[in-house]
Every structure is written in structure tokens, then in C-alpha cells.
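Appendix B, Record 12. Input sequence as logged:
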Amino acid sequence: MNNPSNPTSIIAPYIESLLQEKRTSGFDYRTEELLLLRFDRYCNERKLPNAEITRDFIQDWCMKLDTECNSQLSKRISVVRQLLLHMVSLGVEAYIPRNDVRKELVLPHVFTEQELKELFIAVDEYIPKSQSFVHRRMANEYRILFRMLYCCGLRNGECCGIPAECVDMKSGTLMILDSKGHKDRLVKMADDLTGLCRRYWEYIGTWFGYRPKWFFPGKNPETHIPNTSVDTIFTRIWETTPSARQCNNKPTPHDLRFTFITDRVNEWAKDGTDVNAMMPYLQRYVGHKSLEDTYYYYHTSSGLYDVISKFDLLSDVVIPEVKA
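Logged structural output:
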């Protein structure tokens, strides 16, 4: 019987070679692999006769399903575009579909001070459904991981996949390698977070009896904790907080990064620091390609208005109060 996790269609060799190429280049590509396997089943169901992909053949793949949003459709098309471009580079004739799906604008959830307090209390009190040694060990990992996401403004994948050798607990420095845009950067941790990391790593070393390769090892210690697991646990923990019942938009781990950037800029503004002069440093710290990306994070957050309302001394002159 064929393994359902392996491609079986006529284009299976091209799917496998693309996965190998991406992973050799350092990409995780697990989510993309699942979409490629869906496309593999699509090819089998429609009895693709040869490796050539025509416009008519792929047309149904590019149609939006009732159960998906624009972002999911765009991702589905984008992954198969990568496969078809790979096939073309190997001499196969293939139609390359356009990906002009407009993604819905989803505003980030910027945590309030009270929400952050409730979240981290819930993180520390989290009890996994299973009381196995592995799940109890991973509950301790979440306590450090979620703090690192917020305190350092990291992306979820950067935090989950950081090798142990890239965490310098003597200097309190993280080395983020080959992140978005294939760039490396150094991230300095606060002293209290560094202290937590030291105690956590002593615990991990005692638990395993050796130092694992990954700073946040998964259930299988040979691999790091998956992004998807962190998303699931984050939602489970957040929904136990009092604020979750009053929150209209469901936050994600990535929103901790948004909150870090917003809080940092707000603190500078409140302290009278020249925000524009500091933004290039913040850009490098969080690993953005351009200053525009960093400003985008800040300008899409509601936290901006707290600062504007406090420091906008011209508002009463430009927009005077309407008197009855």
C-alpha cells in the first residue's frame, strides 16, 4: 500500500525534488508540503496523463472553495506556482497561473498591559491535558518561548527553530540565522529573560541528561517544537484568560511581535526620545527588510492612538470642538 504521506502522481518526482531543494536551502516547508500533497491528489483524481500542466487542467485548483478565505487560496496557488516554476526550470512545459488574489486585511491584536499580565499568568499555570513526562516538559518550554516571542519581538518560526548553539546565555544574545529574506541578525535579551533562559536550560539538560540540538525541542527531541503546536497551545491558553471573553479578534503568537514593536515605540514617545532616529535600530532588531515594514507594524496598531492623543498638541487648533 502506498504511504499517503508520499506523492504518488505522475509529477511526484518533481514534488520530491522541489522539497529537497527547499530544505537544502534551509526552508522548513512542512505546510507547503501538505499543500503539494493535496495537489498530488488533485492530479491523481483528474488522471493527469503526463507531466505537462495546462491552463485548463489547473483552472479548478485556482478556484476558491467555500471553506477557505482569500489568504488560504493565495497560499494554495503560490505553492503550486513554485512547483510549476521548478518543473519549467527542469524542461517541463507547464502553465504558470497568476496569483492576484487580494488577501483580506487582518488587523493585529495589540495586547494591553492587563491582557499581557493575564496571558503570562495563564502560561505559568498551564497544565497539559496529558500528564506524561513529555507534555510536562513542553509546558515548561512554553513559559520561556512565549516570553521570548514578546520580549524580543521574534517571529514564531525564529523562536521555535532556534538551535541551542545560537543562544548565548552568558552574554544574553540570540543569533537568528537565515530568517525572512535570508538574513542573519543578533538579538539582545534583557537580563531577567536571560536569567530565565539559564534556569530553563539547566532544567532541559537535567531532564534529557544531555544538551539537545534545539533550544525548544519537540516531542521528538531530534526536531524542534512545531510552529503549529505553538499556535494551538497559545489559543488554548489565551482562551482561559478573563480578557478572552471580551476580545473580538482572536490573537495569535505573531501578535506578541506586533505588541513588542508598539510598546517599544510608545515608550520612546512617552520618554521624549526621537522615535524617527530610533526606528532604524528597531528595524534591525526585529529583522525587517525596510523601515516601511516597521512603520507598517506600528501604524496598524491601536496603540498608536494612545501616543497621538497624549502628544498631539495641535489637534484642538486644527479640528476645534464643535459647540452647540
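The mean pLDDT is 86.
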